Amino acid sequence: MKKNGLWYSNSYRINVPLILKKMKLTILMICLGIITSFGSVYSQNSNLTFKLTNQSLKNVLSEIENQTNFSFLYQAKSINHEQRVSIDMTNADITDILDQLSEQAHFQYKILDNSVIVLTGGGESGSVQQPTKVTGKITDDTGFPLPGVTVVVKGTTVGTVTDGNGEYILTDVPADAILIFSFVGMRAQELPVAGKSNIDVVLEEESIGLDEVVAIGYGTVSKKNLTTAISKVETDDIQKSASSNMSQLMVGRAAGLQATVTSAQPGGAVDISIRGGGDPIYVVDGIVMPSSSLESGSGGSTTVVPSSVNRGGLAGLNPEDIESVEVLKDASAAIYGIGAANGVILITTKKGKKSPMNIDYSGSYSFVKNYPYTKSLNATDYMGLVNTFSKEQYLYNHDMGAYGNNAYDNGWTPAFSDSEIANAKSYDWVDEVLRNGAVNNHNLVIRGGSERVTYYVSGNYYNQEGTVMNSSMERFSMRSNLSLQLTDFLKLSTIANVNRNKYGNSSVGGASSGRGSQAAGALTAALSYPSYLPIKDEDGNYTQFSYIPNAVSMQDIDDATNSDGTYLNFIADIALVKDMLNAKLVYGNNKEMTDRYVYIPSTVYFDQMYQSRGNIAYDGRENQTFEATLAFNKEFGEFMNMDVVVGVGKYLNSSKGLSFAYDTQNDVIGNDDVSAVTGNMNPDSYKNEDEKRSQFLRANFDILDRYVIATTLRRDGTDKFFPDKKYAYFPSVSVAWKMTNENFMKNIHWLDLLKLRASYGTTGDDNLGSSLYGTYSPSLVIKFDEGNEVYSSYVQDGVDYPNVTWEKTVMKNIGLDFYLFKNRISGSFDVFRNDVTDMLGDANTAGLSMFGTYPINGGHIRRQGWDASLTTENIKTTDFLWKSVLTLSRYNSLWKERFPNYDYNDYQIRDDEPVNARYYYKTAGMINADLSNIPSSQPEDYAKAGFPIIVDNNNDGEITVDDVVMSNEVPKIYFGFGNTFTYKNWDLDVFVYSQLGVNKYNYAWEWADAASLANQTNNENKFAFDLWSSETNQGGRLPGYAYEASSVSLPGGAGIDVMYQNASFLRFRNITLGYNLSGKQLGSVVGKWVKNIRLYVDAQNPITITNFEGYDPEVRSGGSQKTFSAEYPQARTFTIGAKINFN
Predict the structure, then answer these.
(1) 906 — phi, psi (to 5°)?
(2) How far is CA 1115 from CA 28, 338, 735, in A?
(3) Statement: 132-205 belongs to CATH 2.60.40.1880
(4) What is the DSSP letter of 1059?
(5) Which residues does the UniProt record annotate as the domain Protein FecR C-terminal (predicted)?
(6) Cα–Cα distance between 547 and 1014 in angstroms, integer?
(7) For the chain, give me the number of helices (H) and strands (E)?
(8) Residue 418 CB contacts under 8 Å (≥ 6 apart), including other chains
(9) What distance in Å separates the CA atoms of residue 626 and residue 624, rounded to the nearest whole number?
């Protein structure tokens, strides 16, 4: 035996102090490894021959030491020295011999240079080699670099992410480690290091993207097995823009989803519609969330501040936290029951994953500039047009000139002299109300995890200064998604989101409580003031014009809203039978509280008074969800895969509010102390609760990988209906045929998937807003003199309606999915029809009833149309990629049966006409000054100079309601078109969307009123030059003074087409240019801390192509008079930002 000795005593045979005997064996390994590394190394590949039969382990180890340069290290108690073993090997290397020996003696070993360390317990036998540094580059099959690929050492949390060039660096990697390379949409690979320092990897697309998972009701399914019409929104694209609201980012992004901006104010609302329905259901991480924002009132008739608040829901959800968005458009929505007839939007937030800790920061600054807004007439133009139409007024009132048989008597006196007009100074009132805005947005994310625990924690700060004075939004939000694998069968998860939103409410258009211009918003007031008037008079007081408030003085009105949201979601996943039978328990609680403070100081003239007024309002709502589900998943060989979910749910919704409106307060105190109020105080409050209960079933069957059947059944109950109508059943069924898996199509190699789908389902709605049971409330307090007794009387607010039942929707859909040329081209096409019957609504009561309306079922609406999507990879080379996404949709909503007991005009009772119809008479220019072009069919009251010529549409010689025509307010086509270009480290995204084939009422033309100019009641805009005038503009396209001054109407009360205009548009929604820098490119100092930096610039709404002459063809305006037509202006946003991924 060699001098190294066989060490098998109870302690290590090495002369060290006693303290070292208590240290772990690993210390000795390190020391001996350093010492022996200076000696010669015996080759592990040397050929050895051993033939030992039934020998003790001690003797076999000694023999190996005698024939080689290897020494064995072990503790005596770790092995049985007397165990009998046998070895019979010829020309074998040392590892083969040790492997055979370890199997017999039940030990494991590590080779460190010339030492063999005998181990007990875990760990794999083999050579112990020094850790190494591994670098490499990850590309796809065309050589295109893949940034964001996760590289992890198998069995550990050690890993990294590739940079913008697809490159990665891993240090201290064991030479025998295995690396796992994974990327969304690519097939993961596991490669051994095997001592290599450079490993380049080519990742292949995973099943051409068809195995990508899509969220459905209470589960997921691969794209290839999808049986229904579901659109997926690419969140990587929508998160590049500066927006506080997820809905604003979805505009044009999904086929069948119509999204129209209804207000551009900070946090402004977007009208989301799926295939022409009403508000869809939003499901966030499995919990149904309110689709609208919680807003407190401004004080009603006491404070009369135009609310001007039109904000979207989900205001507490940071778009950066969204992982995926799926839109359920057909029977796939039926499993969500009540309200799902309008479709469902599934939102899944980001979760933690098994990986090393990742820290990401993103920040941006945006400059916001309004589109050119409707400009008022300057002082010179205003004065000139006042003179023009005041003379028209004089002629009209005295039957002179074009308006009668009398000759002009020179009795008219101009309102403004030539010198006044020539020397007039203009003041831009609108410019005093509008401004440039700004947005600051900062996000910080920490995420990662291990085998047992995963975490995702994020924080967001968003601050927007609106483009209208006093408008703003500030949001603080935090989200935490945590998951704990408590045991092999129990996983606990919690999702928490808290937010604090602060809003500055600007008064824009509109008026409150029907007060008209005397209580108009700031923009309406600014458009109304003549431009020759200064903002303040010589004494420094706000200028006053008529009874309209001074727009600039309204900036002294305090109007602020604070909103606090708390969202908690607790989930328990229980694996009853691993990979086959799982139970899930879910509790979700969404709680929101808002408070709004409004104060009008006594220095502001508003609603025709100088009086201090205020309002304090508190509102809250809570939505609770309790659900339990049981999921069964089983593969029956190659014949069938089965996925079944059954569940029950209970849903509680409550809301309450309290407000105090008051007048006559000290301006110094304001809302700080309402006890100092000396005038009237009007308190108000409310409280509502409702409950729903459900049972549901979903079953999916994939048969022979060719035929897929999916069924759902939901039983919903609501407390709004009477007991015999409380519950309803809503079934659905959908099927898919994967034709490319049939034998007759398997040889078509360029066709990856061709799938035909069909679905049928029913849903219901209880959208009444309140119960159908009769209610009473306290009213007058009555005091009797005798006995000084006080009694309160009660009045009946509502009566019982036991016959009202569920609104029903039947949804039908046929679709086709296709994938071609290895996923280079993919898309879908769907045709649908939804029939809504037994509609819930209010009908007019008899004249003597104490109630104005009552709820009923009735009417039938049919929504039908088609939608399509197409994705293409146009060019794909090593350095360059060009990808396009196109979405198209068209729908129409028709009356099949009108809603009963409603007062319709004669031209509104025709079936098969659009629900969104506008009715009017066609015109053919204006009647000229000599009345020579009046047709015989023209109504007598309309036969005046400057009146529009009414077209006899049916050529019967007279104008009746039969001549009324209809225009559909729904565009004929919605489309979105996105293009992504990537060249090396550069990327460019261009996204446009459009609405084509739609006429809209142009409210800007209402600011061209000849009578208003003549009477000097308002300023007007540039379209006043298009007004017909007998002396200055007989070719005017808008009606003249006589039309505006008269009170005549056409049969049926329908309007005229003069005010309608083609509102088709194409808008560049986003243009984004980015550049990616890897840590390697940033240098050794920065690269030590930073993996990757993305720098980008983005332009939102930079270009709009349209012939519409209103200020914006998209933002919806409401009402039919000026006080409702000055909406918050659409804006262009220019952003510069950075996203940093830290090591």
Answers:
(1) -60, -35
(2) 76, 30, 40
(3) no
(4) G
(5) 50-118
(6) 17
(7) 14, 53
(8) none
(9) 7
The pLDDT tens digits for 769-789 are: 666 665 656 655 555 555 556
Please check whether residue 28 is in contact with residue 13, taking contact to mean a CB–CB distance below 8 angstroms: no
Q: Where are the beta strands (DSSP E) in 1079-1130?
A: 1090-1106
- The H or E element spanning position 815 is strand 807-820
The 8 Å CB, 24+ separation contacts for 238-241 are 238/319, 238/325, 239/319, 239/320, 239/322, 240/989, 240/1070, 240/1072, 240/1074, 240/1096, 240/1098, 241/1070, 241/1072, 241/1098, 241/1100, 241/1133, 241/1135
DSSP code at position 1129: P
Give pLDDT, residue 177. Answer: 86
Quote the tokens at residue 1069: 């929604």
Closest by Cα among 824, 817, 850, 690 to 750: 824
Quick one: CATH architecture of 18-127?
Answer: 3-Layer(bab) Sandwich (3.55)
C-beta separation of 459 from 436 below 8 A: no
Residue-level pLDDT at 338: 86
Tokens 């929505």 correspond to: 333
Question: Of 262, 414, 381, 425, whose CA–CA distance to 1008 is shortest?
Answer: 381
Q: Residue written as tokens 């079944």?
A: 644
Which ranges constitute the DSSP H helices of 774-909?
none
Judge if 18-127 and 132-205 fold alike in CATH terms: no
Cα 813 to Cα 867: distance, rounded to the nearest angstrom: 11
> One-letter amino acid identity for 113?
D
Helices 94-105 and 57-67 sit at what angle, rounded to 10 degrees? 170
d(CA 1062, CA 1001): 9
- Measured in residues, the chain has a length of 1143
Cα 439-444-448 angle, rounded to 5 deg: 155
Which letter, b or e, does each residue of 133-162 get, where b requires 16 or more Cβ atoms within 10 Å of its Cβ? ebebbbbbeeebbbbbbbbbbeeeebbbbb
The DSSP secondary-structure symbol of 208 reads G
Percent of the residues in the chain that have a pLDDT greater than 70, as a whole number: 87
Residue 1004 main-chain phi, psi, to 5 deg: -65, -30
Mean pLDDT for 503-531 is 79
Average pLDDT of the segment spanning 581-586: 96
Q: Which of 506, 488, 684, 652 is nearest to 576 (CA)?
A: 488
- pLDDT (tens digit per residue) in 87-123: 888 877 787 788 888 777 777 777 766 677 776 544 4
Is pTM beyond 0.85? Reply is no
Residue written as token pair 């809302």: 671
Bridge partners for 713 per DSSP: 697, 731
**How far apart, in whole angstroms, are the C-alpha atoms of residue 157 and residue 454?**
11
DSSP of 154-166: TTSS-EEE--TTS
Rounded to 5 degrees, what angle do the CA atoms 267, 268, 274 make? Answer: 115
| Out of 6-20, 361-375, 977-991, least confident range | 6-20
Q: 759 and 733 in contact (C-beta within 8 Å)?
A: yes
Work out the burial of residue 724: count CB atoms within 10 Å of its CB; fewer than 13 is exposed, 13-18 middle, 19 or more buried.
exposed
Report DSSP state, residue 237: H
Mean pLDDT is highest, among 81-90, 124-133, 201-210, for 81-90
* Domain coordinates in residue numbering, the chain: 18-127, 132-205
CB 1113 within 8 A of CB 261: no
Residues 6+ apart with CB under 8 A from 612: 599, 600, 601, 602, 663, 664, 665, 666, 667
Average pLDDT, the chain: 84
Among 182-196, 374-388, 479-493, 687-701, the minimum mean pLDDT is found in 182-196
DSSP 543: P
Average the pLDDT over each of 53-62, 574-583, 861-870 and give the range with the smallest value: 53-62
Say how far apart CA 1024 and CA 854 lie, in whole Å: 45
**Which is it for the CA torsion 1016, 1020, 1022, 1026, positive or negative?**
negative
